[in-house]
Please model this.
Amino acid sequence: MGRSLVKWLLWGLIVLVHLHGHRGCFEEERMGLLEIKEEFVRSTPNETIQESIKYLIPSGVYPLFGGHILPSWVDDHKSECCEWERVTCNSTTGHVTHLSLHNIWEFDVYFYYPFDFEDMVWFLNVSLFESFKELRSLDLSFNAIGGWIEHKDFASLRSLEVLNLGDNNFNGSLPKCLCGLKKLEELDLGWNSFEGTLPSCLYNLTSLQQLDLNGNQFRGNISSLIVDLTSLKYIDLSYNLFEGLSFSLFANHSKLESFQFRCDNKKVEIEMENSDWVPLFKLESLVISNCSLNKQSHQLMTFLSHQHSLRKLDLSHNGLKGPFPDWLFRNNTRIKSATLNHNSFTGHFHLSLCLNSTYVIDVSNNQLNGKLQQNIGEILPNIRYLQLSDNSFTGSLPSSFGNMSLLDTLDVSLNNFSGEVPKDLFVGCSMLSILVLSNNYFDGHLDWVPISNLTRLYIFKINHNQFSGAMPNELPNFVNIARLFILDVSNNKMSGRIPTWICNLTDFGGILMQNNNFEGQIPCETTTFELLDLSHNLLDGSLPLWSSTRLKHLHLEENNFSGSIPEPFLNMSELRTLDISDNKLSGSIPSAISKASNLRILLLGGNQLSGNISTQLCQLTNITLMDLSRNLFFGTIPRCFGHTLSFGIFDAQYWASGFRSGDSVYYLDVEINFVTKYRLSSYKDDILTYMSGLDLSCNNLTGEIPLELGQLQGIHALNLSHNQLTGSIPKSFSDLTKVESLDLSHNRLSGEIPPQLIELTFLEVFSVAYNNLSGRTPDMKAQFGTFDASSYDGNPFLCGLPLEKNCTRRDDSPTPMHSSEVSDEKWYKVDQTVFFTSFLVTYIMFCVGVITVLYINTQWRLRCYNLVEDCMYSCYFSISITLRKFSAYLYN
Ligand SMILES: *[C@@H]1O[C@H](CO)[C@@H](O)[C@H](O)[C@H]1NC(C)=O
Ligand SMILES: *[C@@H]1O[C@H](CO)[C@@H](O)[C@H](O)[C@H]1NC(C)=O
Ligand SMILES: *[C@@H]1O[C@H](CO)[C@@H](O)[C@H](O)[C@H]1NC(C)=O
Ligand SMILES: *[C@@H]1O[C@H](CO)[C@@H](O)[C@H](O)[C@H]1NC(C)=O
Ligand SMILES: *[C@@H]1O[C@H](CO)[C@@H](O)[C@H](O)[C@H]1NC(C)=O
Ligand SMILES: *[C@@H]1O[C@H](CO)[C@@H](O)[C@H](O)[C@H]1NC(C)=O
Ligand SMILES: *[C@@H]1O[C@H](CO)[C@@H](O)[C@H](O)[C@H]1NC(C)=O
Ligand SMILES: *[C@@H]1O[C@H](CO)[C@@H](O)[C@H](O)[C@H]1NC(C)=O
Ligand SMILES: *[C@@H]1O[C@H](CO)[C@@H](O)[C@H](O)[C@H]1NC(C)=O
Model:
């Protein structure tokens, strides 16, 4: 009796366990999942690798290293594997049907797109998935998977309908076994390094509805693939090496909704114009960018007049011609986003229908002209993003802009707009976060009161116009715009005092007010921004007593500041650029300068600074450009300059922070005097990062030139002219292998010119004029063949070509004389043309190298672009989030 009771109880228990298991989770699948977890834990980057990728990880956003992944996947029989995170089971059968193993280490995807942690690469064993007989959907994206360990067969995955291998490091050709997945409806292979032609068996996957091959190096002709896969709804062929195609291949694809083909260069030919062609599909999204679209006609496709479902159209960078296509908007009134920038559309930007569904229009970089239609605000009542820059628009901005109450971004820069900016714009467009009016002919006084009501304003640029008047000292709604990231009112005709509210304006952005007529003192007691440019104004008083830990770039040059350089002012550990040249500053350089250890550019020229050149300057080991010229410094040139300063090259990335919005990038420009003229194109700014130089000219320096200066091997320009230097020219100067400009003129140097100097192959400007040199001039070889007698003028004892005096003849000469004429021009300005010419040659060589590498390796190129983007993104995380939501909202 007791025995049978135990027996019954046992049976009951078994049934219970069985029921329990069936309801949730099959043991086989539970074990399979645990094995998968184990595999991921095993592949977690070890400390060496973590260290090597650390630089890619923004602070505060740490991935789940250290085995903390998939915390709910525990080896405990009570645990229901169907309830584990990232697992979905069929509620009737209890089998696992969906596995979503995307980004298992939980990197902040946003920062690393596309995924490029080659150091982390690991290989996946397909047999791990053998236990899952009913798996329908498998997502392994964003995990640094480099390939399969064994992939003889994907037999176990036969039921798979959705497979996502995107954003990994797969390379080589596409494994044929994928073709066994006959039920596949979605295949995402985007952003890997797959290469070669697509296996023809892929054509048999006729259920395929979504195919994403974006960002690989697939090549060959894909026409037959397209013809066979007639169920396709979504196809992305962007960034591969495919041959061009004719869009008529899609004639039978009645289900096609989205076609994406972004090219790297304008070589891939895509022909979409087919006169008697009425497509069966109704596209919702069409993206063809930077390709050779309709090579013959360069016309916009007429079939677009029947795509009434079209929501997103991106035909940017395609060289399309013809008048602005108003018909496109008339026929496709549901268009949400139309990106037509970087084409050659001409004529007026005129829309004839009210487009209440249109959120994004980008027609920048075309050849549109004329005035904007007066009712533009009524035509685009719901527009969020309107990009009109770089056309030839004229006239004033219609006041109907004020009706665009949802407008987030308005950029009308680089046009010929004029007149006053309508107040309605500031009052009505209360959602504005980016407003760019730069480089036009706007004038009048701005009304700052409604501007300060724009609570979302983030970038406000009105530079290079003719705005006049003062900025009010008090702003009633100041607190609303306190987080402005860029305020750029530079290059206008504004006057009055600097308002105190700018001091509290931005947490980490920049304020640019240079090239105006602002006067008075700097009102700020502290700073919160990264960049402040008040140069070229009429400011006076003493320099502020700041000690900011944020300030990176400070430009106060060409004002009337007086007094000494305050000590705390140099106690700014983040400072990269300090330009206070051409003021009336006096006193010596404070020893605190050594604390500004990140300084790259120190420009103090054109003041009345005196004293010895402090050896503290030698502690600025990262300096690339130092100008102490046109002051009253005396004493000798510190030897330590040669020991510690490298005058090397540094990253452009270090300088310009920017913020990307749509196809436009708004840089927080770092503007250095000598590139001012060149800064209209942004790449010119990069030249700055290759410029390095030391200018000590026009002082009262004495003693010999230290031999150690020959160790400044990265230097491009060295100017010691107009001093009282004695002794001979160091032979070690032949080690200045990068030097392009060397000026030692107007000193008291004696002895011979070292003949080794002819080894300086980049030298473009050379002067030893007005010294006491003797002997032979260097042979007229290499660069020295290009210097004429003016390089040697005023040295009566020199002989040899290009001088007229022959070295064999001895004759009396007048005693060396000293000219007191002092050039007013800056050393770097004098050499600028020359510098840029020779720079350009070097630069082109460098670019050819880089481009060759990038050309060969598409993946690098794409990632390179993306890296730059990523960096910009990471700088401005907070706004990006908003925009991300915004764009998600737009495109969904
Ligand atoms: C980390 O992993 C890499 C590659 O798997 C290996 O070469 C290296 O020796 C490992 N380092 C340590 C400390 O385990
Ligand atoms: C669960 O499986 C049953 C039997 O295979 C099937 O009929 C049902 O559609 C599946 N349910 C879901 C949600 O997939
Ligand atoms: C495609 O399928 C057909 C029949 O279904 C078969 O004859 C053909 O060999 C397959 N092609 C490839 C490349 O697998
Ligand atoms: C669209 O454009 C064509 C000409 O391209 C025109 O004939 C047609 O009437 C327009 N309207 C609609 C609703 O298709
Ligand atoms: C746009 O206007 C049409 C009629 O003019 C209206 O039916 C439609 O609802 C409006 N759509 C939106 C998004 O406001
Ligand atoms: C600023 O905004 C407030 C509330 O949003 C509004 O009452 C006020 O009229 C606005 N002021 C200006 C000058 O636009
Ligand atoms: C600016 O900040 C300072 C101190 O942080 C504060 O005393 C002052 O009131 C602020 N000014 C404005 C206009 O907010
Ligand atoms: C020089 O710059 C590098 C970055 O390029 C930085 O890591 C280093 O700390 C800097 N040196 C000093 C002395 O600040
Ligand atoms: C330069 O130094 C010399 C000698 O030290 C001195 O006589 C002369 O006045 C100085 N010149 C200037 C402009 O300071």
In short: The two ends are 69 Å apart (CA to CA). The pocket of 2-acetamido-2-deoxy-beta-D-glucopyranose (ligand 8) is lined by residues 597-598, 621-622, 650 (CB under 6 Å). Residues 13-22, 650-656, 670-686, 810-892 have pLDDT under 50 and may be disordered.
